[in-house]
From TrEMBL:
It comes from the Bacteria. PROSITE patterns: ADH_ZINC. It comes from Paenibacillus prosopidis. One of its GO terms (molecular function) is zinc ion binding. This is Putative zinc-type alcohol dehydrogenase-like protein.
């Protein structure tokens, strides 16, 4: 067993405390990663607080992991000691079902293994990246290109791939009009990606508070959704709307903004069902869809795309003793645009 320092929450209410966790000894295809940075994702909070179902405590969240390989198993072929690597939302899948074979392991028919709060194939409860070390099978580890700093790389492993994948799938490209709902951790990445893919990008945000930011990040237009005029002006105009908001929205109003054959894809996950009027879809052959992260191959492609196009998230680096405070700020939407924990501060008071 390998002992790692970690920050864990011992109840839904927290707070985080310094603790130690055990990582398995390396199997032949495992790599040991010394974690340097871990991003804070809104879903860490939902999961730890039990919003999405009961979890075990202590819980170490974190599925935006960046670090170095410090040890490799006897049959590892993809990595050597010293490689800069990342781990995202999953650490394993069955690898045999149709979806795994197609490279969409996130949709594994037998259920992918989450990086934390899941039971892995060894029967162990997985613990995430708010820790100094993690052991992961090489097939679920991606390479971080040299051009991307490790702190900025971390949020790409969830916020990055979650927005990159639907933009690619629904063909964001020159000549396409893409709207991004919400300019938070996910939304700001969606704007950067859609812009780099050549689409005309519009941000739809409750207020115009972050308009300057949005335009700087690559948006061509910025509208307030609390202004009802917005829905009149933009009716029938978008090929793709990426909804990053997990709070409830008036879906039918947003669907009315889609052009013929347009798609509204949800990457935010509201806990309550959303009412969709079928007549919001029929007249313009519109689609309402969902999308979850991306496969391992696509995650690597996304990282390479970021290096090529000089795309990195906007981050605020914090020390490990500031996690509770950072979570409160995430809940208050007071972050531009992603918190990243400096893991070298793990044992600090
Ligand atoms: Zn996440
Ligand atoms: Zn599978």
């Amino acid at each position: 067993m390998i002992t790692a320092n970690a920050r864990a929450t011992f109840s839904p209410e927290g707070p985080f405390k310094l603790t130690t966790i055990e990582r398995r000894d390396l199997e032949p295809h495992d790599v040991l990663i010394e974690i340097k940075y871990a991003g804070i994702c809104h879903s860490d909070i939902h999961t730890a607080r039990g919003d999405w179902g009961p979890v075990n405590y202590p819980l170490v969240p974190g599925h935006e992991i960046a670090g170095f390989v410090t040890q490799v198993g006897s049959e590892v072929t993809k990595f050597v000691v010293g490689d800069r690597v990342g781990v995202g939302c999953m650490v394993d899948s069955c690898r045999e079902c149709n979806n795994c074979r197609k490279g969409v392991e996130q949709y594994c028919l037998n259920g992918m293994t989450g990086t934390y709060a899941a039971i892995d194939r060894y029967g162990q409860y997985t613990q995430g990246g708010y820790s100094t070390h993690i052991v992961v099978t090489e097939d679920f580890v991606v390479r971080i290109p040299d051009g991307i700093e490790l702190d900025a790389a971390a949020p790409l492993l969830c916020a990055g791939i979650t927005t990159y994948s639907p933009l690619r799938h629904w063909g964001a490209a020159p000549g396409k009009k893409v709207a991004v709902v919400g300019l938070g951790g996910l939304g700001h990445m969606a704007v950067k990606f859609a812009h780099a893919m050549g689409a005309e990008v519009t941000v739809l945000s409750q207020t115009l508070k972050k308009k300057e930011d949005g335009l700087r990040l690559g948006a061509d237009h910025y509208y307030s959704t609390s202004d009802s005029e917005t829905f009149k002006i933009l009716a029938g105009s978008f090929d793709l709307i990426v909804n990053t908001v997990s709070a409830e929205i008036d879906l039918n109003a947003y669907l009315s903004l889609l052009a013929v054959d347009g798609t509204l894809v949800n990457v935010g996950a509201p806990s309550e069902p959303l009412p969709v009027h079928v007549f919001s879809l029929i007249p313009h052959r519109r689609s309402f869809a969902g999308s979850a992260i991306g496969g391992i191959r696509e995650t690597q492609e996304m990282l390479d795309f970021c290096a090529e196009h000089h795309i990195v998230p906007e981050i605020e680096v914090i020390s490990a003793n500031q996690i509770d405070e950072a979570w409160e700020r995430v809940l208050a939407s007071d972050v531009r645009y992603r918190f990243v924990i400096d893991i070298s501060t793990m044992a600090n008071e």
